[in-house]
Structures are given as C-alpha cells and as structure tokens.
Amino acid sequence: MASFTCDRCGKCCVSLGQSIIIERQLNDRNYYCRSTIDNLFFSARVDPAFAEEIADEFLVQGDAPAGTYPKVCPFLRKVPGSDTTTCAIYATRPKICQSFTCYRMIIMDRNGNTCGRVIGKNTLRTDDPALEKLWQGLVVPIPSGNPAEWTRRVAAILADHGYHAKPVE
Ligand code: SF4
Ligand code: SF4
After folding, report:
1. What are phi and psi of 49, to 5 degrees?
2. What is the distance in A from the centroid of ligand 1 to the CA of 16?
3. Per residue, what are the HEC states of 106-157?
4. What is the C-alpha separation between 99 and 78, in angstroms, rounded?
5. Beta bridge pairs of residue 22
6. Of 156, 159, 12, 6, whose CA–CA distance to 76 is shortest?
7. Left (φ > 0), alpha (ψ -120 to 50) or beta: where does 81 sit?
8. What residue segments make up the domains of the chain, in order of their start?
C-alpha cells in the first residue's frame, strides 16, 4: 500500500470546492464555514498571505447577486508568480478535503519511478506509451465490480510486464 500524497494542485477544489460555504467571518483570518456534502461546520484559518484578498472578496460576495461568482471554493487561490493554485486554509481545511484522494493506485516502473496514476474506476494517467498500450489492451477489459479482485488482477498483469502497482490507502 502507498500513502496518498496531495500535491495541492487545486484541481479537485473546482468541483469539490463548490460545497464549501463561508457562513461568516470571525476576524481578519478566521471564518466559520460549512461543507454541504457532509453538512459539517468547520473553522477555517487563512494563510496570512491570502487573508486580505479573501476578506475583500467575502465582503463583495456578500452583496453580490447569486451566481455572480464562479463556482469554485472560496479558499482556492493562485500562487503569486506561478500558474498553480493552492488552498489558503490547507492546515484547517475540512474533513471532506482531508479525506479526498484523487487517485487509487500508483504504478512504478522497473527503476522504481512513478510512471502512472489510476483515478476513478480504471482511468490511467501516464506519459509512458508502453504502459498506456498495456492498460488499454489488458486492463481496461477487466470488470471493476469487485475492487479487491480488480486490484489483484491488475497488479499481476503489471508485474508480468515489469511494473509495480501500489494501491493507495
Ligand atoms: S486531492 Fe488531488 S486533485 Fe485535489 S488538490 Fe490534492 S492532488 Fe490536487
Ligand atoms: S478548502 Fe481547500 S482543499 Fe478544500 S476545496 Fe477549498 S481550496 Fe480545496
């Protein structure tokens, strides 16, 4: 088993983030919030780098007609000077975000380098053309109804071709 590592790319925060609601601002960095997926309230503490930006936006959004702002998490922020995004409340992000895993399996090549990730039922993300071909030919046809059996069969096929599958916990 491999441990899931979130690289904070922010991709899931566009869809998952639609469920994150700021109920009220408590002070310059702290917000009382709710996640509508599990209907749990949580306290969010904003990274100082984004505190003013979020406070300003919160004030404006409070007066704006519904639907004015894009439906992404209010705490998703662009990293200054880069094209990437980050969570402005990462240390206090809600349970739903902490438990979310965007891939279920890592695939390593014969040198131990990560060369693929499996997301959803059986979608492969890889830059390795040989692995992609193998996946499409031998893995995609495997029924995914029984996850444990699917993992066992996929791991065996990959091992036969020099790859190592590590399910993510
Ligand atoms: S859970 Fe995955 S998609 Fe979401 S921010 Fe982390 S790495 Fe990106
Ligand atoms: S709270 Fe953070 S991790 Fe959760 S959806 Fe918003 S930006 Fe993403």
Report:
1. -60, -25
2. 10
3. EEECCCCCEEEEEECCCEEEECCHHHHHHHHHHHCCCCCCCHHHHHHHHHHH
4. 23
5. 33
6. 12
7. left
8. 12-99, 105-167
| Cβ of residue 11 lying under 6 Å from some atom of ligand 1 | yes
The number of C-alpha atoms within 13 Å of 62 and in the hemisphere containing its C-beta is: 10
Residue type, 57: E
Q: What is the pLDDT of residues 140-166, one digit of tens each?
A: 999 988 989 999 999 999 999 999 999
In this structure, the residues whose C-beta lies within 6 A of any atom of ligand 2 are 13, 16-17, 20, 73, 75-76, 87, 89, 93, 97
Residue of 24, 27, 26, 28 lying closest to 52 (CA atoms): 28
Cα distances from 119 to residues 24, 45, 46, 53, 125, in angstroms, run 35, 30, 30, 33, 8
**pLDDT single digits (tens) 39-80:** 999 999 999 999 998 988 877 776 666 666 667 899 999 888
Q: Coil, strand, or helix at residue 16?
A: helix
Ligand lying nearest the CA atom of residue 96: 2
Q: Residue 111 has which token pair?
A: 């040198």
Task: Characterize 129-143 residue by residue with b for buried, 16 or more Cβ atoms within 10 angstroms of its Cβ, and e for exposed.
Answer: eebeebbeeebeeee
